[in-house]
Amino acid sequence: MYVLSDNFAAFREGFVNTVELTALSALLAVVLGIVIAGFRVSPVPVLRAFGTTWVTLMVNTPLVLLFLAVTLGLPALGLKGWDSFWLAVMALGAYTSAFVCEAVRSGINAVPVGQAEAARSIGMTFTQTLGQIVLPQATRTAVPPIGSLMIALAKNTAVASSFNVTELGSVMKTLNSAEGYNIFVVFFWIGLCYVVITFAISGLFRLLENRLEVVR
Amino acid sequence: MSDISPTAAAAAPDALVVLSGVNKHFGALHVLQDIDLSIARGEVVVVIGPSGSGKSTLCRTVNRLETIDSGSITVDGRPLPQEGKELARLRSDVGMVFQSFNLFAHKTVLENVTLGQVKVRRTDRRTAEKKARDLLDRVGVGTQADKYPAQLSGGQQQRVAIARALAMEPKLMLFDEPTSALDPEMINEVLEVMQQLARDGMTMVVVTHEMGFARSAAHRVVFMADGRIVEEARPDQFFSNPRSDRAKDFLSKILHH
Lengths: 216, 257
What we know:
The complex is a heterodimer of chains A (216) and B (257).
Chain A: H1 3-6, H2 8-41, H3 45-60, H4 63-76, H5 84-110, H6 113-121, H7 126-156, H8 168-178, H9 183-215
Helix pairs in contact in A: 2-3, 2-5, 2-7, 2-8, 3-5, 4-5, 5-7, 6-7, 7-9, 8-9
Chain B: H1 6-11, E1 15-26, E2 29-40, E3 44-48, H2 55-61, E4 70-75, E5 78-79, H3 85-92, E6 94-97, H4 109-119, H5 125-138, H6 154-166, E7 172-176, H7 184-199, E8 203-207, H8 211-217, E9 220-225, E10 228-233, H9 235-240, H10 245-255
Parallel strand pairs in B: 3-8, 3-9, 6-7, 7-8
Antiparallel strand pairs in B: 1-2, 1-4, 4-5, 9-10
């Protein structure tokens, strides 16, 4: 019954890897999401079309399929040498970026159009208007939904266990199949690990929200 | 329209803004119909007319916040560029003041006035701040420099907005109903700043319902109705002796009390 103490090293490795996978995919998703949101509101039709296509593709593809496409597709296209961890970061980051993009875009749409008009009227370029005026004001609206997306992302990292990545999901599978521990106890400890991560994320975002409230 | 005011006739050789044959539609609405208008350097043109007559749209086409369907607009002899860096450069030379102020809500008053100088003109921060403080003093809100726009009254916000536009040292200032969103007692403090600007020789296009300002500060009144320029005249002529029935009707509704 001593699953945790017997296998502490495995649990720790799984926990750390899940945290790393979440953090790096989150970083990729947020950066990419903001860039794609910029594309979607840009005056350049090609960029807008690219943004729309990207979001449609990522939002409508099941995550497992996307993992398959990345882990099999990229090496087939000649991009060899990435280990499965980084391939998982790419798949999770790309997938989540589409949702982040839409959250950012709804934030952008919540900023009164006069703000951008004023910025343009003093000669700011599209990039300056977006970066200096619109995005800083869009953040307050976009942060709460992005928080939920990051929690979803933390849980989605479990899909990576099917693609050769050691994380909490794969620890659970190993313990369940091999050692004959009580399956519910294993569930409990793994579940608790995820709760720690997701509560940490929601705490972080609550902090961010409060911080942004004070600014205005 | 052959006997328009002497200012307009004299304007042609030294015109700063020339609109010719400008048309624009909003869906089925033909909001600007064959607009020809030329504005001389240093001239103050007041555009008046009933709601929906296209005056604001006309004002916004000059710095291409509204695109046009046909015709041409030149500013300082150059046609308006398409979207991009060239257009941004042109806009930095054309100040604009909006009905709803549109101060950057997340920036202080001082930052509102320095931002364009630093990001667009590449002025160093110290110089930009000095100039911003001078301008804020000039429009009478120097003591509010470190506040956020939401902490200011409408009249103060609009004067900051004028300072923000002036910080770019524009060749021309566009005012799109600058006092329409203000409480009555705040209208004058904004109009006084505009009067001073007019006296200093700034070229101004002012869309407004303030007939007092039109009378005292305008060189020329442009009267619009249903997307057309119906009449142009010197203010004294226009207000005492309007030629078109449309203008007579409009003035009778607003001037008799």
